[in-house]
Amino acid sequence: MSQGLQVLILGLALGGVYALMAIGVSLTYGVMRILNLAHAAFMVLGAYVAYWAFRILHLDPLLSIFINGPLFFAIGILLYRTLFVPLAGRPRYTEATLLLSFGLALGVEGLMGAWWTGIYRAANPAYATRSLSLGSFYIPEGQMYATGVSLGMLLTLWLFLQRTRVGRAIRATMQNRTAAQIVGVDVEGISALAFGLGMASAGISGSLLSFLSPFFPGKHWQWIASLLSLVVLGGMGSLIGTVVGAMVLAVASVYVSSALGPTWSPATFYAALFLVLLLRPQGLLGRKEG
């Protein structure tokens, strides 16, 4: 019983971080129907920024979110306007953006490999190796801080989407792009903003990734596979579904890791992706495409 609760605690803590990592993928797809395969590559790039800031400037990785957030937001808007806008209106827009983001992921990986080689790296602040006792249970201190930051960012995003005019415009565009444009929403500007927010979430997630897990340039392929599983499980373009999917799969993967060993943990995501596509393609909270 106690072991099961311990695994549940660890899974829920991990789920909060996964939700922040995946929310940018879901937001970008929901607004623009762009499945950004480069999202995880920019997460790893954000981890490198946090790592070098920690090594050179002795800046805590948790504080590097204030660098990565604005930096990757600006990068996202620049990339969207220079690379994705020219593709607008093409008959196979979604497929073209998919291939473009795939190429972008390869390019970012190549640059990171050329600059920093392929060795594993990880920031090692003091709290990364400490644990907090909660009675008979424990939680890794670094994971607890990362979860707190993730939930804070998710709450901030939720409030922004619910309480601001721009946030309501983003939600309207996600629900029906054409209708939003008819009622006066600047769909092009909203799309650039949403892409920037998605990239900002990748950069902030990278700050957390820098001390949660060792990383190297090619690590993003494992991460994007896991993130796509979370997004598909929750429902493509459903932000709430992404959070639910992250929690469910994080807990499931920790249980599998506890029962069968960590080698089997990634298989949880692929099995979930297979079953969802087979049984409920629209995901838990997604809508069927017309």
Essential attributes:
290 residues, mainly alpha, 11 helices, two-stranded antiparallel ribbon, ABC transporter involved in vitamin B12 uptake, BtuC
Structure, described:
There is one protein chain. This protein has helices at 2-32, 39-57, 65-84, 93-116, 141-163, 165-175, 177-182, 187-212, 220-234, 239-260, 265-279, and strands at 131-134, 137-140. The chain is an all-alpha fold and 290 residues long. The chain has one domain (2-279): ABC transporter involved in vitamin B12 uptake, BtuC (Orthogonal Bundle). Strands 1-2 form a two-stranded antiparallel ribbon. α3 (65-84) packs across α8 (187-212). The longest helix has 31 residues, at 2-32.
Concise description?
By secondary structure, the protein is mainly alpha-helical.
